[in-house]
Design goal:
- The protein is α+β, with helices and mostly antiparallel strands and 237 residues long.
- The chain has 2 domains: 6-82, Phosphorylase Kinase, domain 1 (2-Layer Sandwich), CATH 3.30.200.20; 85-220, D-amino Acid Aminotransferase, Chain A, domain 1.
- The protein has helices spanning 46-63, 99-105, 134-139, 145-167, 212-215, 221-233, and strands spanning 6-9, 13-17, 23-28, 31-34, 39-42, 70-75, 78-82, 85-96, 112-122, 131-132, 171-183, 186-189, 198-202.
- The strands form 3 sheets. Strands 8, 9, 10, 11, 12 and 13 form a 6-stranded antiparallel beta sheet that branches.
- β6 (70-75) and β7 form a beta hairpin.
- It binds thymidine-5'-phosphate and aspartic acid.
Length: 237
C-alpha cells in the first residue's frame, strides 16, 4: 500500500491517502507535545513504539469484539487504517486519580477509584479540550444518542479488558483517552492507544511509564516507552 497525498498532519501523527478510498495510512511521528502544544520535544523512536503498541492493542481489542479502524501494521511508523469521520469527543476513562482529575477536584494523586470514571472532552486545542457532558454532545450534535451510548459502552468495556491486559504485565492502567469515528455508518475506535494517551504506572512501584515523564521532565522517557513496548508486545510476565 503506497502513500499518496498528505491529508492531515496533527501533533503526533500524519495521515496519507492510499489507492483505496476507504483506507488511509497513519504515520507515527517522534514529535511530542504537551499542554496543548505549549511544550514541544522529541521522544526518540516514539513513533515506532506507539505504532507497535497500538497495533498490538487494537488486535487484542478486535479479538474481544471491539470494532476498530486498524487494518494492518505496515512498517516501523506506518499503520493502515480505515478512513474515519472523527467524532470530536475525547473519551477518558480513569481507574486511579491523576492529572486533571486531581487538579479539578483536589483528589490526591494515586487514590484508587471505587469504580471507573468516564469523562468527555471536546476535541479543540484552541479551547484547551474543555470537559463536556452528554447534554453538550446531544445539543451540539457531536454524536447521536446511539453513538453516545456506544462511546460509553465501548469506553468502559475497553477499560476493563485493557486493565486486565496491563495488570498481567505488571502495569497499572491509571487512565487513558480514546477517540472514535464513523466509517460506513458504524462507530469504530480510532487514533492510537499508546503511552502518549494513557497513564501507565508500574504495578509494584507506581513508577510512571508514560508521557507524564515528558510532560514533567521526569527523565528516562525513551527508556520507559521501550519498557512498555517490551511488556506489551512480548509475552505476559
Ligand atoms: P488528563 O488527566 O489530563 O485529563 O488526561 C487523562 C488521560 O487522557 C491521560 O492518560 C492522558 C490522556 N490525554 C490525551 O491523550 N490527550 C490529551 O490532550 C489530554 C488532555 C489527555
Ligand atoms: N497531547 C496534548 C498536547 O499536545 C496534551 C497532552 O498530552 O498533554 O498538548
Amino acid at each position: 500500500m503506497n502513500r499518496l497525498e498528505k491529508i492531515y498532519e496533527g501533533k503526533a501523527k500524519i495521515l496519507y491517502s492510499t489507492e483505496n478510498p476507504d483506507h488511509v495510512i497513519q504515520f507515527f511521528k517522534d514529535d511530542a507535545t504537551a499542554f496543548d502544544g505549549v511544550k514541544k520535544g522529541t521522544i526518540v523512536d516514539k513513533g515506532v513504539i506507539n505504532n507497535q503498541v497500538s497495533s498490538r492493542l487494537f488486535q487484542f481489542l478486535e479479538a474481544k469484539g471491539v470494532k476498530t479502524h486498524f487494518v494492518e501494521h505496515l512498517g516501523d511508523r506506518e499503520m493502515l487504517v480505515k478512513k474515519l469521520e472523527i467524532i470530536p469527543v475525547e473519551v477518558v476513562v480513569r481507574n486511579v486519580a491523576a492529572g486533571s482529575l486531581t487538579k479539578r477536584l483536589g483528589i490526591p494523586e494515586g487514590q484508587i477509584l471505587r469504580k471507573p470514571i468516564l469523562e468527555f472532552f471536546y476535541k479543540s486545542d484552541a479551547l484547551h479540550d474543555p470537559m463536556i457532558n452528554d447534554y453538550h454532545i446531544d445539543v451540539f450534535g457531536w454524536a447521536s444518542a446511539g453513538e453516545l451510548a456506544k462511546l460509553k459502552e465501548y469506553g468502559l468495556k475497553i477499560n476493563s479488558w485493557l486493565y486486565d491486559f496491563f495488570r498481567e504485565r505488571k502495569i497499572r492502567l491509571v487512565d487513558f483517552k480514546l477517540e472514535f469515528g464513523r466509517h460506513k455508518g458504524e462507530v469504530l475506535l480510532g487514533d492510537e492507544i499508546s503511552p502518549d494517551g494513557c497513564r501507565l504506572w508500574h504495578w509494584d512501584t507506581n513508577e510512571k511509564m508514560d508521557k507524564d515523564r515528558f510532560r514533567f521532565d521526569l527523565g528516562s522517557v525513551e527508556e520507559k516507552y521501550q519498557q512498555v513496548y517490551r511488556l506489551v508486545c512480548g509475552e505476559p510476565a
